Amino acid sequence: MANDYPQGVDMAAAIAAGFVLDRREAVPQLIGRHEDFLFVTGLAGTARDIAALTHDGSHIYTMAGAMGGACMIGLGLALARPDKRVLVATGDGELLMNIGALATIAVLNPANLAILCVDNGHYGETGYQKSHTSLGVDLERSRPAPASSAPAPWRARPISPRAGACCAKATAPPFVVLRVKPDDPPSYKRNMEPASCRVRFRGALLGAG
């Protein structure tokens, strides 16, 4: 599977631009102990990344069909429950749909929120069309931050223990850009029933799941 890239993807150009990591290896290494977080995920790619990591655990909430909503749902959750660590795992395409969310997060600055952008430079769910990050947009430079606010975003390259510590122990919202090959996410069949996922996530949120 690792070499079976979707038809039409210019792998040489993608790798030359820095999209070199394997998401199936990099995401688990970066996050580390997943039980430390409540997860809000973007669409299909990152939803499968996190479902595979957690074995579709009750502590993940996926934004299936709600493109652009992951960061703001994560922000609301972090503000409502400052006693919980919230990790938003989203893709470049989903994040670009609502890039203004980063400005709101920078202003509100919740210490218990972390954002991981798995950037493959493509819209994987709709046929691997190039996203803006394949065309010169740098998400690392796109995050606005007040002078006294969060630390500068950084690119997880190569993977190191610093990454997990950044997400788990930060005192302001870290924004990590993980540039990966435009390859398929883990092949994992997660629960696709919205009502069931909502109920189980509520249980995890309240400490009953």
Written account of the structure:
With 209 residues, the protein is of the alpha/beta class. The chain has helices at 11-16, 23-31, 44-54, 70-80, 92-96, 101-108, 161-169, 194-205, and strands at residues 38-41, 60-62, 86-91, 113-119, 122-123, 129-130, 154-155, 175-179. The strands form two sheets. It has a six-stranded parallel beta sheet, with helices on both faces. The protein has a two-stranded antiparallel ribbon with strand order 5-6. The longest helix is centred in the C-terminal third of the chain and has 12 residues, at 194-205. The protein is globular, with a radius of gyration of 16 Å.
Provide a concise account of the structure shown.
With 209 residues, this protein is an alpha/beta fold. Helix content is 34%, strand content 15%.
Shape: globular
Largest sheet: 6 strands, parallel
Low-confidence stretches: 1-16, 154-162
Total number of strands = 8
Order of helices and strands: HHEHEHEHHEEEEHEH
Task: Spell out the blueprint of helices and strands.
Blueprint: H1 11-16, H2 23-31, E1 38-41, H3 44-54, E2 60-62, H4 70-80, E3 86-91, H5 92-96, H6 101-108, E4 113-119, E5 122-123, E6 129-130, E7 154-155, H7 161-169, E8 175-179, H8 194-205
Parallel strand pairs: 1-2, 1-3, 3-4, 4-8, 7-8
Antiparallel strand pairs: 5-6
Q: Which terms would index this structure?
A:
209 residues, alpha/beta, 8 strands, 34% helix, globular, disordered N terminus
